């Protein structure tokens, strides 16, 4: 940084009232001012790791660092200038990548989950047959690895890891190539996991064919396993019902095959927050199913099936993920990971309790730029935003959400840079400050900073 530029910055600092750093504040205190100047200078470092860490910290500081970077870019050249331009571009986004964690054990990572307190993150990677546990640094959202569990027998093809609701004292991994489901206990203080049992079927109970997702019922008594290719002589798909016994073992109860192949390549499931009802998406079937469940027996009863191309529904071909708003009024779907529409759908309930379409945003038809392969979606805790991963376009799509109507307004797609398989699984911190995405093709976890009001 030139002597003239530093003089200008010092003059600006002297006439500005001292304030603490904030994403929405342009003026900053002297200590932070000096720190930002050091970070900008480090963008010229000979060490790549120093340049990279300086860029990530400037991104974390957000808009409070923007005035100094705009002045510094006038005298910068080479890689420092390029990095400053990239940072300033990212700061104009409503959500931005501030870090990527790349580890060998994250090869083909597809799933991330946060503990209810936001202190621990869990990732499943199917190529390495692993579950990796990270601690989350409060305030910065940084991840530090604390445990990796690898077991070819019980975690082969581990594609998803989910925590039990509320207390999160259990976790479950669905392992598609191992044709099994593995139950863990979770230490709430250390965050670490311990294998309790693995279900692979017995002489008297069926073996999972393609367990692609598994989740706990809200009361934690049962696990519903989405078996995308479960078959009774035909490829149809179904939901296996496993009970957690008193001695912490997994016991098969039943398998619900749905009706008219509505669970063919079943992929997503979400529970209503106040009533015993759930919503299931199936990719090959192109369906969104509304079903009742019995919390005492685990039994499932299909009540309604919405199908792509029927009753005004156009965006369920390749339906993949589903979520529901915290007030229970709106259901959201994403589609297109492997086939069909790259779409995001919004549904609500009529007076009889049936689902009806409110809105569909379909890539190529509406303003939904650079979005292909809709995978998982998440609704922010404050209800202001919905984020959806586009695996084939390697982007994250962000939407503003109207809490009254449930409708979405497209904001932007954030690119991941490399044209590989992009983000898959996604989760958001309880305070809404950080979004985490499993980046399948880069064997990485991307950490996003979300601007809060």
- Rg from Cα: 23 Å
The number of distinct helices, counting runs of at least 4 residues, comes to: 5
CATH topology name of the largest domain: Methylamine Dehydrogenase, Chain H
Category by helix and strand content: mainly beta
Helix content: 10-25%
Overall mean confidence score, pLDDT: 88
Shape: globular
Describe the protein:
Helix 2 packs antiparallel against helix 3 (48-61) and helix 3 packs parallel to helix 5 (78-91). The protein has helices at residues 3-15, 30-42, 48-61, 66-72, 78-91; strands spanning 95-102, 109-114, 120-125, 130-136, 143-150, 158-163, 170-175, 180-186, 193-199, 211-216, 222-227, 238-244, 250-256, 266-271, 277-282, 287-293, 300-307, 319-324, 331-335, 343-349, 355-362, 374-379, 385-390, 395-401, 408-415, 423-428, 434-439, 444-450. The chain is mainly β. The longest helix has 14 residues, at 48-61. The protein has a 4-stranded antiparallel sheet with strand order 1-28-27-26. It is 13% helix and 41% strand. It contains 5 helices and 28 strands. Strand 7 and strand 8 form a beta hairpin. It has 2 domains: 3-92, Leucine-rich Repeat Variant (Alpha Horseshoe), CATH 1.25.10; 97-450, YVTN repeat-like/Quinoprotein amine dehydrogenase (Methylamine Dehydrogenase, Chain H, 7 Propeller).
